[in-house]
Amino acid sequence: MAEIKVVLVGGPSYFPDDQRVQYAPSLTETFKKRFRNGYEHFVHQGPSTPWKARSFRPWSGRPGQPSRSEHDANGAGKTAFPSRERRHGTSVPSVIMINFPYPLPSDTTSEVDERAAAVALLPVGSYEQHGPHLPLVTDTLIACAIADRLAAAYPVQQLPPLTISCSHEHERWPGTVSISATTLHAVVSDIAASLRRGGTTALVVVNAHGGNHVLRNTVQESTARGERMALFPTADDWRTAAEDAGIHTDAHSDMHAGELETSILLHVGPQLVRIGHESMDHVHEDRRHLLTLGMDAYTASGVIGRPSLASAEKGQRLLAGLTESFADHLSALGVR
């Protein structure tokens, strides 16, 4: 049986139903168990029609073989699992495409010019382990979710996210990728300078990765030069939003891939949350040597927190609370 590789792709605006994509020859039991309801995969509709997105349907039988009841009268293959014969002998890679909750901003230059926003939002995430139940892009998804709601509520320009940042404490887990603090500082500073040259005089860095300590210094240095920059959300913003959302675990105990992050993912991208988060709880309160020893000194799974307490409703309330608290940050930047 072929191995299934999962690939996150752009949202519906980037992968419309009539776009031709390739389909995986088989679906393993592991894959079926790891993903919850709601994800999309791509199926073939016959020799003269393209591959199309279809929702997952329960299936019984051998991998790659549809049940007889799933064929229509003409054998067009209205099944989630087309047989090898229906693939016309072509060799296709073992890839399943899953819709990514947040496509990149699609503004044109004319639209940006017409909006003339004085403030830009730069989402900063990471590409790091988030336990067995959350994807490596979790922080980026959260940063984009926050920025998306802020852009809908306030007169700001939303920028594409920075998807790799300072995740060195997670590097002993497969998949984690980092850049240096120096590089992150330089990239954010360069983006702010470019925005100012284009007439956007203030930048809010929407950071969703706690390990990006350097961003505080980046904002402070910018302020000292007389430039306008802010870091959002602050610890106080998170604390207030978490309390209002009914998050039970405090910020210290819920450090990574716990109740808060899992709640937001259950709200914005439930198809990306793997089954089993209810049994992933792990708390390690004394982490005084984290910078020296790394995360793996305190957790084997990569989780520090209580994801079992997470819910989509809490995630929705968290984002609503953060959206409300953002008004004070605009005021601090001199924007009404």
Question: How does this model look, in words?
Answer:
This protein has 336 residues and is α/β, with parallel strands linked by helices. It is 31% helix and 12% strand. It contains 9 helices and 8 strands. It has helices spanning 29-34, 109-115, 138-153, 181-197, 214-224, 235-245, 259-268, 290-293, 312-332, and strands at residues 5-9, 40-44, 51-55, 95-99, 119-124, 156-158, 202-207, 228-232. The protein has a 4-stranded parallel beta sheet with strand order 6-5-7-8, sandwiched between helices. The protein has a two-stranded parallel ribbon with strand order 1-4. A two-stranded antiparallel ribbon has the order 2-3. Helix 6 (235-245) runs antiparallel to helix 9 (312-332). The longest helix is centred in the last third of the chain and has 21 residues, at 312-332. The relative contact order is 0.13. Mean pLDDT is 79; it is low at 1-97.
Count all strands and give the number: 8
What percentage of residues falls in helices of 4 or more residues?
A: 25-40%
Q: Helical element count?
A: 9
Main-sheet strand order equals 6-5-7-8
Beta-strand content: 5-15%
Q: End-to-end distance, in Å?
A: 59 Å
Mean pLDDT: 79
In quaternary terms, these chains amount to single chain
The whole-angstrom Rg is: 22 Å
**How would you sum up the major sheet?**
4 strands, parallel
Structural class designation: alpha/beta
**Stretches with pLDDT under 50, minimum 5 residues:** 1-97
